[in-house]
Amino acid sequence: MSLINKAAPDFTAQAVLPDDQITELTLSQYLKGSYGLIFFYPLDFTFVCPSEILAFSNRMDKFAALNTKVVGVSVDSQFSHYAWRNTPVEKGGIGQIKFPLIADITKQIARDYGVLMDEAVALRGSFLIDREGKIRHYVINDLPLGRNVDESIRMVEALQFHEENGEVCPAGWNKGEKGMKADAEGVAAYLAEKASAL
């Protein structure tokens, strides 16, 4: 069942914040007035996961400029998250990343988002949430397939372009490019100009 245009499943769970504080975080309160990018990953202290987490953390200035808060979720405890954050990157850790990590030890959050695999770990799901709390885009990768964080940024930019201009974003759209009017005339005009480049 698709989650598109449905309210993002809310949750309250233990989180490790960027300042290393361990506290309870409620998603809807945390995102209030912002866009959200929630991503699930299988486990702490693994192999593909740190590359994704560091890629998100290294782009937090871009997400902040887009009024987008990033949250990572796995089925590990808050204590495992804390230990991983406090392990240097060169020793298999993630260091002081710049967004919260949520502990989903009951696996209910992963279930609610449809990413729990074999009642064990979460698949690599990424969910874009608008300012009204609705899911507008998501993608779910199998465990061996790391995600493209720049694509997550592009999707936030596309959603904001649509909201601001009322136009839709055609294939391969990037920030700064023209959109397309969502009618027969707009499609025809766009394709006449761009069809050979698609």
Automatic annotation (TrEMBL):
Protein name, UniProt field: Thioredoxin peroxidase
UniProtKB keywords: Cytoplasm, Disulfide bond, Oxidoreductase, Peroxidase, Redox-active center
Domain named Thioredoxin: residues: 2-161
N-terminal signal peptide: none
Keyword Coiled coil tagged: no
GO molecular function: thioredoxin peroxidase activity
Subcellular location: Cytoplasm
Xref: Pfam families: 1-cysPrx_C, AhpC-TSA
Annotated source species: Govanella unica
GO BP terms, alphabetized: cell redox homeostasis; cellular response to stress; hydrogen peroxide catabolic process; response to oxidative stress
Highest classification ranks of the organism: Bacteria, Pseudomonadati, Pseudomonadota, Alphaproteobacteria, Emcibacterales
